[in-house]
Write a structure and sequence with these properties.
heterodimer; A: 383 residues; Aspartate Aminotransferase, domain 1; 2 domains; seven-stranded mixed β-sheet; three-stranded antiparallel β-sheet; 12 helices; 13% strand; globular; B: 366 residues; alpha/beta; Rossmann fold; Elongation Factor Tu (Ef-tu), domain 3; six-stranded antiparallel β-barrel; five-stranded parallel β-sheet
């Protein structure tokens, strides 16, 4: 069967150019950057070279970059690391988040609340999942340890006004972290200009390898370690460096940024086709998230009277790989918390579908997909 | 290679060796095969899991499907299972009968909700790893016992109609369990034995009594134990906890051995008596499913199983009217129990089945 992948927000294939660049670091240049001999020096050389290249690409300092093993790990380190330190040093114990955060943020905040006696304050969002800036301004106070708001939403694609959020946080003396795992793959990033304090992302969302990411953090921020051990990553994240992964991350980020403009043009065209045709052709279907201010490759919907998991199965059997929300493969048709937070009724939220596009997709595939989607929804409603 | 007329089959996978080997066999036979597992309801779902589909079974099935090279999906039918099976199970308990939910699950969920979905999704067949055989005779399909007598599962399939059977495949029907193990080795499938749980799959970790407390407290209502003259001889702790023919657990203070003879639901009384009082040879059945109604036209000697693990006994069927009938067995049996399923055979072939409704002794002692 001809299979079409429409789940690039879950993960992407490694670009062959990225793989090529990584390969020598599994075999020839295999040293541990902490070793002082020849092999160690060569490994440390490429490690610091990567750090420098990433810093240039995102406009930040080399020293601000902490390599991690995933986007989730970056979120964990950013939130747990700063909040525990802020509580210990200054008695700040409150985390401000939106109700539509990725579980990596949401569940880290909940653990801090349940285990470390911190408080969570959720910010108001609009029907598209974008946070309300006035509400943010009102809710930041002297107890605020950290504000963490998702940049581009993984489930509903909505983009938050992160530059304004950073500005408000800094006016009010709060730290700002953004989960940029989706956004970093598609949107231009300028860490200094946007004035982010903490910024997490991962390579596998932009044709890099799985198991590697980075947290960019303003060096003036006090943090406690995520993984204690050796002196890697300023002792905030110990563990032998994943050099092939870091090389892959760097190359993938370079390619992604170089090709972003032309790629986005193509992606936005296909995305908008899906976003405009589906609600017209399928009665009882609604776009979730902001219809225009959203990730370039991201289309998401809810359909009345069907179960999203069933739809995903039916589409997969027809050769189209989509997701019912996040990448999570569950037998449980629990409605997504993100969709409920938008104010959707549970019976509506259960009929969710996420279609995320990438490099290999063509317009012909999208046309075929739309036909199959229309047919599948019709069939499921009949059952 | 994809053949245009290649038949499409869904194999219901449990993660165990039987359904996995069945899946591999179907692939070898040239079918286009897709694996599926049903997610069923369990009490306190979320924490507790239904014993038929716990996460480890799902992972195991995923692994098996990957080795065999077929797609695998989990379908959620919790709500339908709860409504069709659990709720009616609870209702039956309230009426004082002991139902067989597995029989109805096959009839209404696996070959009901699920088969409908399978057919509507463009598949031709639903296959399972049951040990039973199908044989086409002209326009009629026969359901036969599995060839391995120790594994035969035709009993639990006896509620299926001709239409349901016409969309069914049982690749293991001709096999012995030892063949299946050999095949598992041949296909490099890890031989994981799924433990056959004797408990109800949906009861949850708290156990049966707690389940009853929550959903059917009437079934736990204490009452009197009486003899056949109506004299109170003790107290019982809820009728649902006793089975006809049971001897143990009826309380002390009885010199002669006594047995549960009958449950009087209206009075919430447990009727006990000596061994001689026990045993019935006639029963009525309702909700019948006749796979071979043509066999009933010439009254012959049939055989019947009055519960899954019961031995076959000779019987005849009479007073057949719509979906009801009566049957009489050669010798009185101790444990013909209302709510249980009676399955009738002619040789190796399933004639049909029905739910036991009322029980009596020939000539009548009531």
């Amino acid at each position: 069967m001809d299979r079409v992948y429409l789940d690039y927000a879950a993960t992407t294939p490694v670009d062959p150019r990225v793989l090529q660049e990584m390969l020598p670091y599994f075999t020839e240049n295999f040293g541990n950057p902490l070793s002082s001999h020849y092999f160690g020096q060569r490994a440390e050389g490429i490690l610091e070279d990567c750090r420098y290249r990433i810093a240039k690409l995102l406009n930040t300092e080399s020293e601000a970059i902490l390599f991690t093993a995933s986007g989730s790990e970056g979120d964990n380190l950013a939130i747990r690391g700063t909040v525990i330190a802020a509580k210990k040093d200054y008695g700040k114990d409150t985390i401000l988040i939106s109700p539509v955060e990725h579980p990596a943020v949401m569940n880290t905040a909940k653990q801090l609340r349940d285990v470390y006696d911190c408080k969570i304050i959720e910010l108001r969002i609009d029907e598209y999942g974008q946070i309300n800036l006035d509400d943010l301004r009102e809710k930041i106070n002297e107890k605020t340890a950290l504000v963490s708001i998702i940049f581009g939403n993984n489930e509903i694609g909505t983009i938050n006004p992160v530059d304004e959020i950073a500005k408000i946080c800094h006016e009010k003396g709060a730290l700002f972290h953004t989960d940029a795992v989706q956004a970093c793959a598609h949107l231009p990033i300028d860490i200094k200009k946007s004035d982010f304090d903490l910024f997490s992302f991962a390579a596998h969302k932009f044709y890099g390898p799985k198991g590697v990411g980075a947290l960019i953090r303003n060096r003036s921020i006090q943090m406690v370690a995520h993984t204690t051990g050796g002196k890697q990553e300023h002792k905030l994240r110990s563990g032998t460096h994943n050099i092939p992964g870091i090389v892959g991350l760097t190359k993938a980020l370079e390619l992604s940024i170089n090709e972003q403009e032309s790629e986005n043009k193509k992606l936005i065209h296909m995305r908008d086709k899906i976003l405009s045709v589906v609600p017209d052709e399928i009665p009882g279907s609604y776009i979730t998230g902001n219809p225009t201010n959203r990730l370039p490759n991201h289309a998401s919907f809810v359909f009345e009277g069907i179960n999203g998991n069933d739809l995903v199965i039916m589409l997969d059997m027809a050769g189209f790989a989509c997701s019912s929300g996040s990448a999570c493969k569950v037998g449980d048709p629990k409605p997504s918390k993100v969709l409920l937070a938008l104010g959707l009724k549970p019976e509506m939220a259960i009929g969710s579908l996420r279609v995320t596009l990438g490099k290999e997709n063509t317009e012909a595939q999208i046309d075929r997909f739309i036909d199959v989607l229309i047919d599948s929804v019709r069939k499921l409603r009949k059952i | 290679m994809m053949i245009d007329n290649q038949k499409k089959v869904v194999i219901a996978m449990s993660g165990g060796v039987d359904s996995s080997v069945a899946a591999a066999l179907l692939v070898e036979q040239g079918y286009s095969v897709t694996g599926m597992m049903l997610k069923l309801w369990a009490d306190e779902c979320g924490e507790a899991e239904n014993a038929c589909c716990p996460p480890e079974a799902i992972n195991q099935a995923r692994q098996m499907a990957n080795i065999i090279g077929i797609p695998f999906y989990v379908l959620d039918v919790k709500n339908q299972f709860k409504e069709l099976i659990v709720d009616s199970f609870v209702n039956s308990l309230i009426q004082g009968i002991t139902p067989n939910p597995c029989y109805y699950c096959n009839k209404q969920v696996r070959w009901g909700v699920f088969l409908d979905r399978v057919i509507d999704s463009g598949f031709d067949y639903l296959a399972t790893g049951h040990y039973a055989r199908l044989k086409q005779n002209g326009s009629t399909i026969s359901l036969l016992k599995g060839l391995d007598p120790s594994k035969d599962q035709s009993y639990v399939l006896s509620g299926l109609t001709q239409k349901q059977l016409s969309h069914s495949l049982f690749p293991l029907g001709e096999m012995k369990k030892t063949n299946v193990r050999e095949l598992a080795r041949k296909y490099s499938l890890p031989v994981a034995e799924k433990k056959d749980s004797q408990d109800l799959c949906f009861v949850g970790e708290q156990g049966y009594r707690e389940f009853l407390k929550k959903y059917s407290p009437q079934a736990l209502m204490e009452g009197n134990i009486v003899n056949s003259e109506g004299v109170i001889v003790g107290r019982h702790s809820g009728l649902s906890g006793y089975t006809i023919g049971q001897r143990k657990g009826l309380g002390a203070g009885n010199n002669d051995p006594i047995y549960v003879i009958e449950k009087n639901i209206e009075k919430n009384e447990l009727v006990v008596g000596p061994l001689e009082k026990l045993g019935n040879d006639q029963f009525s059945i309702v909700d019948c499913n006749w796979i071979r109604p043509d066999f009933l036209k010439n009254p012959v000697q049939f055989q019947v199983k009055i519960r899954y693990k019961a031995v076959l006994v000779n019987c005849s069927i009479f007073d057949i009217f719509e979906d009801q009938a009566k049957a009489i067995v050669d010798h009185p049996l101790r444990d013909i129990t209302p709510g249980q399923i009676a399955v009738f055979y002619l040789g190796d072939e399933v004639v049909g089945s029905g739910m036991i409704n009322s029980v009596s002794k020939q000539g009548g002692n009531e």
